[in-house]
Design goal:
Elements: E1 6-8, E2 33-40, E3 43-45, E4 49-54, E5 66-72, E6 90-98, E7 106-115, E8 124-125, E9 131-137, E10 141-147, E11 152-154, E12 157-170, E13 178-179, H1 185-200, H2 203-209, H3 212-215, H4 223-233, E14 236-245, E15 249-258, E16 261-272, E17 275-283
Parallel strand pairs: 4-12
Antiparallel strand pairs: 1-17, 2-3, 2-12, 4-5, 5-6, 6-7, 7-8, 9-10, 10-12, 11-12, 13-14, 14-15, 15-16, 16-17
Helix pairs in contact: 1-2
Length: about 280
């Protein structure tokens, strides 16, 4: 994936039978315009939704201003823009202004990630980068054109795209509502309780901390095996380092350790029957 983020729902994979949470179905559309399409093996794939957002750090140098352009088949919630997209065709392009290749900073395309269809088995990452023409570059919007001058061969497939766009710059990393206290308040405590129950292997407690439909997945014959997998995939020593909430949804930033390395994550929790329940996580 272009942003090297591993998207994990409760750090659960398909072996638990849990679907990855997405807010796309209720996403608010941005005031963006886009013309053009992706053509795959001679078939036109319409990608009518366009987004742009700034990355927190640069690609070649962390101080380089860096953006991501996303053309996608269905609306995406702002908080989910930097997450992997599992259920739609898309083209995701990384852009940076850098002096890495000369004395003066210049705009460069540094990544290209393409999914040919919603049910594609995989995606294109890298390859021949497109041409880029930008007429407006921040701070509020990106406007221009990104295109391949001729079809690009990728193993047994051929693709080409040409998009002219004008899009406001979104912020998938910003706070929602009010900032949470240093320890994450009630949402932070709810997530830490979930992590504690996972590593304790406490099936009964886990079921009370998950949404009902997911708790059912830990009630069958494979429950113990699934919990062991959760333990393997959940960081240890998890601490809350920040977060925000609008009262109905909370975003909690955490850090922990996995395989001897420090990892950071962003946990999404929602109010369910008066309690905070974790519904999604993105780990770096």
């Amino acid at each position: 994936m272009s942003n090297n983020r591993l998207i994990i729902l409760f750090t659960v994979t398909a072996c638990l039978g849990l679907a990855v949470w997405t807010a796309a179905a209720g996403a608010e559309e941005t005031a963006a315009s886009v013309k053009g399409a992706l053509v795959v093996n001679g078939t036109t794939v319409e990608l009518p939704y366009a987004y742009a957002y700034a990355q927190k750090t640069g690609f070649y140098d962390e101080t380089d201003p860096t953006w991501t352009l996303l053309f996608v088949g269905h609306p995406i919630d702002e908080r989910s823009l930097d997450d992997h997209i599992w259920d739609a065709a898309y083209v995701r392009i990384g852009i940076t202004r850098t002096a890495e290749f000369g004395d003066q900073p210049e705009l460069q395309v540094f990544s290209q990630d393409i999914r040919f269809s919603a049910d594609a088995a995989g995606n294109v990452s890298g390859g021949t980068y497109p041409q880029l023409e930008l007429a407006v570059v921040g701070p509020e919007s990106l406007k221009g054109r990104v295109y391949h001058t001729e079809p690009v061969e990728f193993f047994d497939d051929t693709f080409q795209y040409d998009f002219s766009f004008s899009v406001p710059i979104s912020d998938p990393f910003g706070p929602i509502g009010e900032l949470l206290p240093e320890n994450g308040g009630e949402p932070g405590a709810a997530y830490l309780a979930l992590v504690d129950a996972i590593h304790a292997g406490d099936l009964e407690r886990l079921r009370t901390l998950m949404p009902p439909e997911r708790a059912e997945m830990l009630a069958g014959d494979d429950a113990r095996e699934n919990v062991e997998f959760l333990q393997m995939m959940t960081p240890t020593g998890v601490e809350v380092v920040g977060g925000s909430s609008d009262g109905e949804t909370a975003i909690v930033q955490v850090k922990g350790e996995m395989d001897g390395e420090t990892v950071t994550g962003e946990i999404t929790l929602v109010q369910l029957d008066g309690r905070w329940v974790a519904t999604g996580a993105a780990w770096n």
